Amino acid sequence: MNIEGLDYNTQREQLILPEYGREIQNMVDYAVSLPTKQERQQCAETIIGIMDRMYPQNRGNADHQQKLWDHLALMSKFKLDIDYPYDVSQAATISRKPEAMGYPMKDIPVRHYGYLLHEVFEKLKTMEPGPERDELVRITANQMKRDLYQWSHGSVVDEKVADDLARYTDGAIQLDLDHFEFEKMSERDFVVEKRKKKK
Predict the structure, then answer these.
(1) What is the pLDDT of residues 86-115, one digit of tens each?
(2) Contacts (Cβ under 8 Å, ≥6 apart) of 74
(3) Is 154 left (phi over 0), alpha (psi -120 to 50) or beta?
(4) What is d(CA 188, CA 190) in angstroms, rounded to the nearest whole number?
(5) pLDDT tens digits, residue range 111-142?
(6) Which residues contact 169 (CB under 8 A, 6 or more apart)?
């Protein structure tokens, strides 16, 4: 929709520092256009005063004034020819975006078990039978059941855990469901956990 006399922010030039708003940006643009250095200096100091009043909570910070003058330099695209009371040569580093951090992408066969459980599956493949392996199997099977419980909204079959454990350990671990006891789990436990996370 195009109505004469109305313009939208999406149609305007993008603000360099949006936190100060378009009016401050317009003032900075006006200051740049002034013919004499004295007028520009006076106008710049007035703008700094207004910017300072916009964020009074920052006045206690040691570098507050430095930041205001840096921001002024940025908004003017360093075209404002005045005598800055601070060195604004490093102001450009404020607006520079940090490089994107690389996210470690791991190949996980079944995402609901997560990468750590798949590392445990690999460990179980090579472990010698004994009490240590039995304890790790117990912990792993119960964690698998918890994960399945959360992902399937409460419908978990013990046979599924046993089948998955055998599959992902290449048959090295075979749960005997007649003798293996899972920890008791109920949907209520998971509702409590979700509430805790929300807090």
Answers:
(1) 988 888 887 677 788 877 767 777 778 888
(2) 16, 17, 91, 92, 94, 95
(3) left
(4) 5
(5) 788 888 888 999 999 999 999 999 999 999 99
(6) 121, 124, 125
> 98 is written with which tokens?
């940090």
Determine the Cα–Cα distance for residues 121 and 114; give it in Å rounded to an integer: 11
Radius of gyration of the chain (CA): 31
Q: Which residue has the tokens 């330099």?
A: 73
Q: What is the structure's pLDDT at 154?
A: 60
Planar angle of CA 72, 75, 81, nearest 5 degrees: 65
| Whether the Cβ atoms of residue 168 and residue 121 lie closer than 8 Å to each other | yes
Sign of CA dihedral 80, 84, 86, 89: positive
Distance in angstroms (rounded) separating the CA atoms of residues 62 and 60: 6
Rounded Cα distance between 39 and 45, Å, is 10
Token duo for residue 139? 């912990």
102: Cα separation from own chain's centroid = 13
Per-block average pLDDT, block size 10, for the chain (199 residues)?
66 84 93 94 94 88 89 92 90 77 73 84 91 93 87 76 91 89 74 53
Which runs of consecutive H residues, i.e. helices, occur in 34-79? 37-54, 64-75
Measure the CA–CA gap between 175 and 138, rounded to whole angstroms: 9
